[in-house]
Request: fold
Amino acid sequence: MAAPGHRRSALERGEKFLSELYFTDCNLRGRLFGDRCPLASLSCFQTPRRIRYDEAIRQEFRPAKVGDSFGPTWETCWFKVELSIPQAWAGQEVHFVWESDGEAMVWRDAQPVQGLTKEGEKTSYILTSSLKETEPHSLTLYVELACNGLFGAGKGSLIAPPDPDRRFTLSKAELVIFNRDVYELLMDLEILLDMAKLLGEENQRSFQALYTANQMINVCDVMDPSTFPAARDLAAAIFSQRNGESQHTIHAVGHCHIDSAWLWPYEETIRKCARSWVTVIRLMERNPELTFACSQAQQFEWVRSWYPGLYVQIQDFVAKGRFIPVGGTWVEMDGNLPSGESMVRQFLQGQRFFQEQFGWICSEFWLPDTFGYSAQLPQLMRGCGIKRFLTQKLSWNLVNTFPHHTFFWEGIDGSQVLTHFPPGDSYGMHGRVEEMLKTVKNNKDKGRVNHSILLFGFGDGGGGPTQKMLDRMKRMSDTDGLPRVQISTPDQLFSVLEKESSQLHTWVGELFLELHNGTYTTQAQIKKGNRECERILHDVEVLSALAVAQSSTFQYPASQLQRLWRLLLLNQFHDVLPGSCIQLVVEDALQYYAEIRRAGARLREEAVQSLCRELLQPKAESAESTLVLNTLPWERTEVISRAGTDSLVLVTVPSMGYALVREPLLPVQPVAVRKQEDGSITMENGVIAVCLDTMGRLTSLQLVGSERESVPDGCHANQFALFDDIPLYWDAWDVMDYHLETRKPVTTLLKPLEITLAGGLQGSASFSLQIGKSSTLRQEIILDAACPYLRFLTQVEWKEAHKFLKVEFPVKVRSTNATYEIQFGHLQRPTHWNTSWDWARFEVWTHKWLDLSEHGFGVALLNDCKYGASAHGNVLSLSLLRAPKSPDATADIGHHQFTYAVMPHQGSFQDAGVIQCAYNLNFPLHVVPASSAQCPAWSAFSLSSPAVVLEAIKQAEDRPDALVLRLYEAHGSTVVVWLQTSLPIKDATLCDLLERPAAQGHLLLEQQGLRLSFTPFRVLSVLLVLRQ
Ligand SMILES: [Zn+2]
Reply:
């Protein structure tokens, strides 16, 4: 018989043969399931809480039936399912089929056994693959149904705030015979028809596939399974025609990207992990080749404590190398906003967890979904035993197409990591022909590398891979016309790429995501919580470490700090810290910050009590005094309020140490504040002199020594501006370039500028403004004696919708680049929009400061809890507040308090101490009432060069008798420094970020201290063993 002449009719004939919609009375798809049998009984119990199995099954269950609805949103229904398999089904494959809205988990004999989620194409639990006489025919299962979808319960759209009243319907619950032979034939035909369609008419392989499929339909009588083998033989013949040697190889790895919280709260994620991972385990049992890459130590920890039985099975498959922990971090964190030390802790907590639980650390960093990647990450990865990085998010760039899928990524210190983006631009593939072809076609490094990865599986509780995906790829393992597809591991892929790497390009600097730039600003309370809690944990660790070194009786609060760090790290997840989560998540996150603040304050007090006990003990003869502690590694002279009073005093406190306030130190020059006839106010402290108009705007900002003016003629600095902020879709995520065209200066004065503190040690003036229709802003502008920057203490009552508030500082500086602080360093970004790569960065992120400098002079903008910023032309802007409505309709509405500061400087920002000033603004001196009046100032550590920052001090993880110090070169220079300490030190060794001593890392304890060599932005860790 001749093959058909008409391509389209042959194709459609095949499609109809597989259709779930058409001709199911006579097509192959209609034969997939055989006889059906209803459940023996079904009953249900509903609860608003997420409870454990043991508690659930003790409740009173009421009758339920298919067709019933449950809810509302976030409730949980537990179903008791009694079933009885008909005797007549002997020899058949029997499935328990469950189709409902929401996410379900099947429990059997008190253990979770299978997730059932329609959205993840998982609706059946295999009871037996061939029913035997001896098998029990009657059994009881429980089904735990979460009343939320895979992606929460957005009302009307994915990212809309959750619909609180959604109902969840049970549409099918029954037993069914599954015809495996029909299924296999369906899979053969699907692949052949996809090849026919997608390879296209210019490809002869397309026609070979089409004619084979057509022939199969001819020989196949759907009512007579004895005709199936002949049809399958036809398919096997074409699938076994192999590729040539040069064909691209796709490494397929099972995956299930689970957001640790996003459109559902943290608590639901715990169940999503269990539902997904138990499903993966079931699939692994039936498919010995399946591998599964799984990130986020936190999720492993959740499953370990909530589902110990399942965890044992996971451990077993980890040991077999098939369930593969990847990433090495506590969670898949945001890649921009966490501090350098936070990023180190992500790896430290993650890698140590994997080491403890599985006996090895991850060799790949894994961040497929995060909104941009700091240029400091390569060095941090290398310091944590990782040389490989996988992501794909840059495929979301709105403006420029990233030019590589496989390349070396080089950080600001020169560290390199081999980086791979799945060329299919996804981390949730389905193993289809289309995706394989896209992977090859889209690969930007054709000819340089011949291997790539494909991650397959439904994410976010969808249970990851399916049997279908595996069966598709089996047929494509080596078939002429398609790339080779092998089930593989990240290690296998990167190992081949490392061998092929000689032709690869290098990308230097940050991997900036040209989208989601609103996430630097959205949910200001979360940003503030992050910055504050980073500071609190820093201070607790420094003070506790010093206390340990000074007193053998002090117990370093290691386990409490670990608990608090893990809360902070969890909140750095890539939909929480960016603010792209629902209100329920925001509430959880703010609670975690509150917990860190509460416990942190207690731990700090305990450390100070131990460290300064002598000074705090009341002594009859001593007068009341004030103890001031400095947790930063340089001497500071600042104005503080005396403990328990409003009285101000200027103090000098040594580096990482403390001093008692005795006679008030008098400033060289007090602050002078004067009101001019036109209502403007001038302030001067001998370092800077400012003139403020009645609206609180700077019309002049001068360095007193040089009389260099910072504000251009006719311009106003500290100018608030309001923008319309309506993105294209991703509301909480995106601010679009066109928002800049809607700028409206805020000029409605509620209360003109008035002097609030007339000078001396501190001068201040305050004013208030109306913003938009219903928001207000009150600001106190403060100048301290001896301080090189002017502070703006700001309070906002924010009640806007889709508006963006910024504050602008036009400055009299010309430079084509501005400098932004990042983790353990800084980088430059252009102030112009020459190319599309430049203007795509119209809104960027920074940490504690940004700076615009020309030779010999510059102006820096410091902040205590903001991250969004920009510098265009000569205008520095700090992004203050947004008002998106999805996925949290209440985002940012309410009261806000934050401080920023402006600092004009002579010379470079490095020499002028901008970096130190920004730290000072963020780490206020600690003031404690003391009794003793006599005590010399004490310093634990100091450094011989301001280029190096001693960022963190902590107890070593595995050695209670040792401290770990983290230092970095902050100026971008090559420098040798001496680290001096007054602590009793026995031994010093360089170590990596996981605190593993470096080979040849031993340091000599010399008279001048420890000699440390740095190259630009180098991060060093030192292990100090205490003499006790
Ligand atoms: Zn994600």
About this structure: The two ends are 93 Å apart (CA to CA). Residues 257, 259, 369, 574 surround zinc ion (CB under 6 Å). The chain is about 25% helix and 30% strand.
